[in-house]
Structures are given as C-alpha cells and as structure tokens.
Amino acid sequence: MEPHSPRATDLGAVDLGAARVYAIPMRTRFRGITVREGLVLPGPAGWGEFCPFPEYDDAESVGWLATAVEQANGGWPAPLRERVAVNVTVPAVDPERAHQIVLDSRCGTAKVKVADHPGSRVEDLDRVAAVRAALGPAGALRVDVNGRWDVPTALARLPELHAAAGGLQYVEQPCASVAELAEIRRLQPVPVAADESIRRASDPARVALAGAADVAVLKCAPLGGVRTALRVAAAAGLPCVVSSALETGVGLAAQLALAGALPELELACGLGTGSLLAGDLLADPPRPVDGHLSVPRRPPTPDPALLERFAQPDPARTRWWIERLVRVAELVRRLPTTPPESRPTG
C-alpha cells in the first residue's frame, strides 16, 4: 500500500466532542516542563492523542492532530517486527540520579540531555561520565542538545563529551539550523542526528540533501502520522531513530507503530519515555522489558478511571485545549483530501 498523508483523513469519523484533556506531572523537569498536558479523543478504532507543546502555533499543530486522527481511525500499516529496541532517556539530573536511571532501565543505549542551561558544561560532562559507567563499555551513548549551541560552542563541547562518554554514538541536533548542522558534521568526527531540523521543516528531507545529518530522528506526531513519517524516512535515505514527543501511552502507540513499520531499523529508538511521567492514561502503558518495547497491533483505549484521575483540574486550561483543538481541526478540514483509492484499509 502506498503511504499517504493522514492529514487527509476524514475528521468526521473521530468524535472531537468527546475529547478529554489531561494533565500528568513529570517525575523530573524535562524540556522545561513539570506537567505534561494534552488531550485524547476517540474514534472507530481506538483513541488518538493531540499534545503539541504550548509554544507551537496552530499551523504547526496540524500534524499532531492528523496523527491522532489517523490513529483513532485505525489507519496504521502492518508491522514488520514485533518489538523494537529503545534507549533510556536521561534528563538533566545529577550524576547519581543519571547512573541509577540507566541501571534501572536495563537498556543498552542511553540518550543524555545536555546544554540544559548556558553554564551546564561541567554538569553535562559529569552526567555523561556517570551514564557511561552505568552502561558499561559495550553500551551506546548519545547526547541531545535540542539545538542550543552555536557552531563554536559545539566544536568546543563535542570533543569533551566524546571523551567523557568513551565514545558517542551521535549528537542529536547540536545546532538549530541545517547549515550549522552541515558545518558541524564537516568539522568534527561525531555523527550528527537531526531532530528539530526534520520535524519543524517545510521539507523534512532537506537535511539529507544538504549533507547535514548521519541519522534522521523521526517523530510521527509532529510529522503528521505514521504514513507521512514513512514517506519522510524514504525521502531522507538515512538511518532512522523513532523518538517520542513525550506522549502518554496513547500517543506513544503511534510512535511504536512507526518503528514497527520502517523497512530498516538498526538503531535503538527513543521511545522509553513513559518513566518520565508520574502516571499514564493506560492501565498497562508501554514499559521496556530488557530494553525493548512491543509494537501494538491496534490503537489503545484509555482507562476511564485514569482519565478521571489525570483530568486537567484547571477549567481555563481545559478550555484552552478544547479551543485549540477546534481551531486546528478547522485547518485540517481545509487541507486537500486524499483520493479514495489511496486511503488506508488497515
């Protein structure tokens, strides 16, 4: 079946009026937030999740809703594998906590957040060294900068982190722009992975054409769904890592479906993020077993008691999310429709 854009999926099959807004505390401050907010909505095949970060405007949130609609309508392709290897994600925590997080995960790959603030150099080095000690020499270690460095800073910090790590598998999004990534890739030996430069680009495959990355990090939520992400992967022509957008287990199911459907998947994926949340909407959320997660066959259904437990307590925030959903849904309705012959059948 030819992949198509889920942005053309029929919104009418999904019950926008039954959306439930949630607020789940984070175990550790992550990506600058302490509470993860979003909403889930039901459809004929299950539930989807719409949780673009608050700073994303309506236009940039269209892909997130398209992903939720694709999921709720049951449009995933058949998986090619039953489980995927995942990395443990280590937030900007102290070395002792970082070491314990990795030990508890039993994962063979770790992604460490660095550059959390301008003066983080020593903290980053200590955290990375602690993670290497926990992983052992055979483990794969990557760092994620979230585009916070300029080129001179990246060229100064990467050799230090590479040494502290005993070798980095790659650095994720060291700088913000594609041109900067290409320069970093040319001037130093650590492989470069592109994340924001793919998911927030009008042409996600441009990073490969510009010689700006060795690895493509795919997040199907902002890209617009599993099928759109598969098309981006094919166009990029790079090894891919599927990464979470910090969803609950509902939205994480779509990311796992993408990882399960990629023709090739050699690197561990960044999908072991459920432990970052102090709760979930699923009674049995995805949790790594020996460093792997199972690929779902169908979209999940939230537990009613957990929907109540983690319901957004602030009426103003609930209203904000519902109004956002309505605006973004209108943008999705205005997009061109997909011809019937190319619509998904399962």
Binned strand content: 15-25%
What distance separates the N and C termini?
A: 10 Å
As for the CATH topology of the largest domain, it is: TIM Barrel
Question: What gross morphology would you assign?
Answer: globular
Major sheet characteristics: 9 strands, mixed
Order of helices and strands: EEEHEHEHEHEHEHHEHHEHEEHH
Tally the beta strands.
12
Count of DSSP H/I helices: 12
For the record, the count of structural domains works out to: 2
Q: Give the proportion of residues in helices.
A: 25-40%
Low-confidence stretches: 1-9, 338-346
Q: Over the alpha carbons, how many angstroms does the gyration radius reach? A: 19 Å
Structural class: alpha/beta
**So, CATH architecture of the largest domain?**
Alpha-Beta Barrel
Query: Could you state the CATH homologous superfamily of the largest domain?
Result: Enolase-like C-terminal domain
Question: Please, what is the average pLDDT?
Answer: 91
Q: Can you identify the CATH class of the largest domain? A: Alpha Beta
